[in-house]
Task: inverse folding
């Protein structure tokens, strides 16, 4: 379900991040653990990664602090925390791309996601699937009508159709976390995606190990 003609978007995005989005930092911490567990499960720890539509660069910085070679991409927001570590979609292949709380902001998901799909075989995205029956305005907080930024909403079927249209084999889908993939992913990875609490605990448990390979100091030296 999507807003047919969202004429209010210029006003909604007078600030890239809505003032009411007070959960941004906590979300990055939690989903950083989820992304880390998926990366480890697929044995991609030494790969190259991109956080697409990454806002202020918070997740990119957190993941680099864990020793993961993340890059940031978001032309709509000021990169505050990952300056110098921007990434491009053109001519670059990433082992995994994250799109955290992005899909519900897209006016044309197929067109806007195609360059992302062309750059990776694994796209880890989050968006809450629509409950059944479809809630009316005021009955589901994820509509976020106070900001006007959430304009596209997905069912499990439409997420699957979106994956196919983008050239992915399929998508492992939970109520919040979705992994678009070409080829196969392990049964462990599928379980982590379908159960974000499990993925969070797995990522949290490896956090101290990850930070032994942190890029924080080397990034600081390269930035000076």
Result:
């Amino acid at each position: 379900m999507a807003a047919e003609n969202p004429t209010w978007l210029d006003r909604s995005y007078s600030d890239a991040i809505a003032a009411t989005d007070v959960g941004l930092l906590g979300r990055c911490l939690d989903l950083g653990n989820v992304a880390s567990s998926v990366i480890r499960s697929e044995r991609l720890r030494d790969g190259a990664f991109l956080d697409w539509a990454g806002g202020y660069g918070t997740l990119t910085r957190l993941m680099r602090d864990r020793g993961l070679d993340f890059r940031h991409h978001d032309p709509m927001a000021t990169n505050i925390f990952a300056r110098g570590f921007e990434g491009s979609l053109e001519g670059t292949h990433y082992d995994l791309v994250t799109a955290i709380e992005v899909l519900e902001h897209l006016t044309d998901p197929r067109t806007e996601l195609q360059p992302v799909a062309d750059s990776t075989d694994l796209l880890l995205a989050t968006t809450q699937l629509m409950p059944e029956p479809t809630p009316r305005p005021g009955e589901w907080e994820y509509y976020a009508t106070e900001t006007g930024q959430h304009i596209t909403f997905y069912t499990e079927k439409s997420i699957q159709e979106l994956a196919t249209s983008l050239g992915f084999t399929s998508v492992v889908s939970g109520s919040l976390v979705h992994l678009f993939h070409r080829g196969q992913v392990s049964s462990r990875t599928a379980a982590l995606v379908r159960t974000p609490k499990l993925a969070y605990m797995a990522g949290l448990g490896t956090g101290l190990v990850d930070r032994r390979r942190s890029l924080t100091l080397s990034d600081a030296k390269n930035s000076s």
